[in-house]
Structures are given as structure tokens and as C-alpha cells.
């Protein structure tokens, strides 16, 4: 990635910094059992993250991801089928996704994925991660002079420049978001505040790399699906043994 993009991480953190108030833990929104497939149950948590699955499951997983992190895209490709098609539908685990911003591209994508119906968040989320190679590849053709537009002027205009340069407008059109709607999203202060809340959660839990995971309140050393799946399997086995 270009040097200016790497250096922009500090500017992004400063832009989204919030007061370091003592965090207040609020319960997830209550929900009726959606039937046999808990993967259809999606709520927005108190800190603005998105959660799918059983909010009262004995196992709760929180993922911290960055849209520009190649390891996050790789993790999503490996983990999503196993979680969404097996453990989550049965109500065995709830999964919360929190965005960790590393640069202005992360912020731009987060605004686009957070805008709109929360029930469709994971459609948008997965689309950007699965297509990461395509839009990240465009960075090689964007010089530092062109990237300067990403750091100058009003914040919505910076995000418009990024969306234009990386062809995000075409990408979001696939789920029915017009360019006008995308631009309105970039100016949406409520969405921006939601993303700021997630950065406060990142600080609260002491997360500094992506992907990172918290399983049942414990920040894990694992940073990929093989490592995380071992932790999940071990905890499930321990709970089953304790129930015998």
C-alpha cells in the first residue's frame, strides 16, 4: 500500500478519537427466537457493532476487522461458511463484528456498509471483503498526488474521492445504492457517530491488530480461522463435559 495511506492511519485515529469515558455495558436488543435459523437474527449493539446469531448463546464471539486488511478478507472467506452455515443457525454462538479503522479507506467503506437497513449489513460487509483483491488492486495505479484529495477538504468530499478512485460507486450499485444515496451516506452524521462508538470499543478492549477476536470475554492470541476454530472447539468440548 502507498506510503501516504499507511501514514494516514494516525490521522484517521485522531479524527475519530472520543473521550475516554468509562465504558457502560448495555444488553443487546431483545429478540424473539427467529425459528430454526439464528443466522437471520441481526441486531445493532450498544456500541454500534453488528451482531448476528443468538444473543443469549453460551458462546459469544466478537471479531475486530479492517476492510483493508488482507488477513481479514482471508479469515472471512474461511470462517463465514463454518459460522453462518453451522454454529450460528443452531443458536450455539453469537457473532459480533466491530470495525477497526486503520486508514481513510476503512472509514469510507464503513460508512457505506453501515448505511441502510441493518438487516442487510452483512451482505454489504461480506461484499467488500470478498471483493478486496479487485478494489485494493486499484491502489497500485493511484499516485500520491491523486491520493492527496483523500486528506484535504471536507470529510464527505474526501470519502467521495476515495469512492470514485476505487470504483466503490459501481460496487454499491449492486445492492441498490445509487451514487446520490452513497454521497448522502458520507454526509450522514448519525452513521459517523456509530462508527466512532466502535472505535471506542476497540480502545476499551485493547485491540491493536486485525483480525482479532474476543471469545466469551477473553481476548485471544489467535488471529486466523484455524486458531480461532481450535478455541471454539475447546470451549464447546469443555462446556459439553461440564454438562455431563
Verbal overview:
With 244 residues, the chain is an alpha+beta fold. It has a domain at 102-203: Ribonucleotide Reductase Protein R1, domain 1. It contains 11 helices and 6 strands. It has helices at 3-16, 70-87, 104-114, 121-130, 132-137, 144-147, 155-165, 168-173, 179-186, 189-205, 225-243, and strands at residues 42-44, 50-53, 59-65, 93-99, 212-215, 218-219. A 6-stranded mixed β-sheet has the order 1-2-4-3-5-6, with helices on both faces. Mean pLDDT is 86; it is low at 1-11 and 17-32.
Gist?
The chain has helices at 3-16, 70-87, 104-114, 121-130, 132-137, 144-147, 155-165, 168-173, 179-186, 189-205, 225-243; strands at residues 42-44, 50-53, 59-65, 93-99, 212-215, 218-219. By secondary structure, it is α+β, with helices and mostly antiparallel strands.
Structural class: alpha+beta
Strand order of the largest sheet: 1-2-4-3-5-6
CATH architectural category of the domain at 102-203? Orthogonal Bundle
Distance between the termini: 52 Å
Total strands: the figure is 6
Topology-level CATH name of the domain at 102-203: Ribonucleotide Reductase Protein R1, domain 1
Q: Outline, from the CA principal axes?
A: globular
Order of helices and strands: HEEEHEHHHHHHHHEEH
CATH class of the domain at 102-203: Mainly Alpha
Number of helices: 11
Catalogue the unreliable spans. Answer: 1-11, 17-32
What is the helix fraction of residues, given as a range?
40-55%
Note the beta-strand portion. Answer: 5-15%
Radius of gyration: 18 Å
Mean pLDDT: 86
Q: Describe the biggest sheet?
A: 6 strands, mixed
Amino acid at each position: 500500500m502507498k506510503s501516504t495511506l499507511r501514514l494516514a492511519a494516525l490521522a484517521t485515529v485522531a479524527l475519530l478519537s472520543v473521550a475516554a469515558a468509562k465504558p457502560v455495558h448495555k444488553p443487546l436488543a431483545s429478540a424473539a427466537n427467529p425459528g430454526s435459523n439464528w443466522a437471520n437474527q441481526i441486531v445493532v449493539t450498544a456500541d454500534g457493532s453488528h451482531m448476528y446469531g443468538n444473543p443469549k448463546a453460551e458462546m459469544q464471539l466478537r471479531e475486530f476487522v479492517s476492510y483493508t486488511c488482507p488477513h481479514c478478507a482471508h479469515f472471512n472467506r474461511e470462517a463465514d461458511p463454518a459460522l453462518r452455515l453451522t454454529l450460528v443457525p443452531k443458536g450455539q454462538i453469537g457473532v459480533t463484528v466491530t470495525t477497526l479503522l486503520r486508514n481513510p479507506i476503512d472509514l469510507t467503506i464503513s460508512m457505506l456498509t453501515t448505511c441502510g437497513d441493518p438487516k442487510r449489513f452483512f451482505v454489504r460487509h461480506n461484499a467488500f471483503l470478498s471483493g478486496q483483491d479487485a478494489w485494493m488492486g486499484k491502489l497500485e495505479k493511484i499516485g500520491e498526488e491523486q491520493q492527496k484529495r483523500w486528506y484535504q477538504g471536507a470529510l464527505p468530499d474526501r470519502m467521495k474521492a476515495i469512492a470514485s478512485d476505487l470504483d466503490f460507486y459501481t460496487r454499491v450499485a449492486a445492492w441498490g445504492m445509487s451514487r446520490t444515496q452513497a454521497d448522502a451516506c458520507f454526509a450522514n452524521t448519525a452513521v459517523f457517530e456509530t462508527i466512532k462508538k466502535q472505535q471506542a470499543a476497540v480502545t476499551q478492549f485493547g485491540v491493536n491488530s486485525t483480525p482479532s477476536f474476543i471469545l466469551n470475554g477473553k481476548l485471544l492470541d489467535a488471529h486466523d480461522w484455524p486458531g480461532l476454530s481450535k478455541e471454539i472447539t475447546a470451549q464447546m468440548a469443555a462446556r459439553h463435559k461440564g454438562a455431563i
